[in-house]
Design goal:
Blueprint: E1 14-20, H1 39-52, E2 56-61, H2 67-80, E3 86-92, E4 95-99, E5 109-115, E6 118-121, H3 122-129, E7 137-143, H4 170-179, H5 181-198, H6 213-219, E8 225-230, H7 246-255, H8 264-273, E9 282-286, H9 290-293
Parallel strand pairs: 1-2, 1-3, 3-7, 7-8
Antiparallel strand pairs: 4-5, 5-6, 8-9
Helix pairs in contact: 7-8
């Protein structure tokens, strides 16, 4: 008997978005241009992996990696993807911090991604991720000093001599916040207000790793399954390189053109094992990501 079209399994859809910033606009960062060398290469190399797995990919480099472009890309993906689909987001650039004004951070600081024309606050990132449908798998790779965890009060270890850390200097961060305080304070207030109006039970589901629990306290239960692997721990810095950042370079080596055998947890462990003690990549999840973690990396 012929199979009815309605009973045919739907093939998962996958899209990816890759940001690499070798510089930022001095006008948005108090005269600082944040020069790095390898972030654009990171974005291109990760996009190549995505394309090899059949994902529809977009790359945003330096001047094109704006707040509006990232938010537009994420929101477009959130509207188009359904249960079983995959969204792969990567960021390579500087991480920053600013004062937390909505009270969701234990250390009173929000972590940020330094986009070309302004910072994206971690509250915004988590809120945008929470808009994806139930059952969507989201992979986020962040090769920066932004870890998205709640504990940033640990003293930062000095970077190895002669190496470029991917972290906006504290002095620059303070100056940027002072010059644009109204904008960033308004962003935090708007995200907090939107989260409260859309999520009535913030304790419905806890993050599976405690470091991300503040994200759940902000937006409530995460419907999608999120895996985030960041370049370092809270008290470390992610190093830049000549062709790739240290984290991305090791990731590519472990992936080895797709010959890697294992799941996301072993992928993270292998990457971490190949880096020095001064930079240990972090892994955490949001939502029901147990089955997602058991998959081979980048599986559509």
């Amino acid at each position: 008997m012929p199979t009815k079209p309605s009973s045919i399994l739907r093939k998962p859809k996958a899209v990816s978005l890759h940001l690499g910033l070798n510089s930022v606009s001095p006008a948005a960062y108090g005269g600082w241009d944040g020069q790095l060398a390898a972030c654009e290469f990171d974005a291109k190399d990760l996009a190549a992996i995505a394309k090899s797995k059949g994902m529809k990919s977009k790359v945003l480099l330096s001047k094109k990696a704006t707040r509006a472009a990232l938010l537009s890309g994420m929101r477009g993906a959130a509207k188009s993807l359904k249960a079983g689909d995959l969204f792969f987001l990567s960021y390579s650039g500087h991480g920053g911090q600013m004062p937390d004004t909505n009270g969701d951070e234990a250390d009173n600081k929000d972590e940020t991604w330094c986009l070309y024309d302004g910072q994206l606050i971690d509250d915004e990132l988590y809120f945008e991720l929470s808009k994806f449908a139930a059952g969507v798998r989201i992979l986020v790779l962040s090769d920066s000093c932004h870890s998205g965890t709640v504990t940033r009060a640990i003293p930062m270890a000095p970077p190895p001599p002669g190496q470029r850390p991917r972290m906006m200097p504290d002095s620059v961060g303070r100056r940027v916040y002072a010059e644009h305080q109204a904008f960033y304070d308004r962003l935090q207030a708007e995200v907090a207000k939107a989260a409260r109006s859309n999520f009535t039970d913030p304790d419905e589901a806890l993050a599976q790793v405690g470091a991300a629990s503040h994200a759940v306290s902000l937006v409530g239960s995460f419907k999608p399954a999120v895996i985030l692997i960041s370049g370092c721990q809270d008290n470390q810095t992610s190093m830049d390189g000549e062709h790739n950042g240290a984290f991305t370079e090791q990731l590519l080596k472990v992936w080895n053109h797709g010959t890697f055998q294992g799941n996301y947890q072993s992928f993270h462990s292998r990457i971490r094992a190949g880096l020095p003690a001064t930079q240990s990549p972090n892994l955490f999840v949001l939502g029901d990501a147990k089955s997602f973690l058991a998959q081979s990396p980048f599986t559509v």
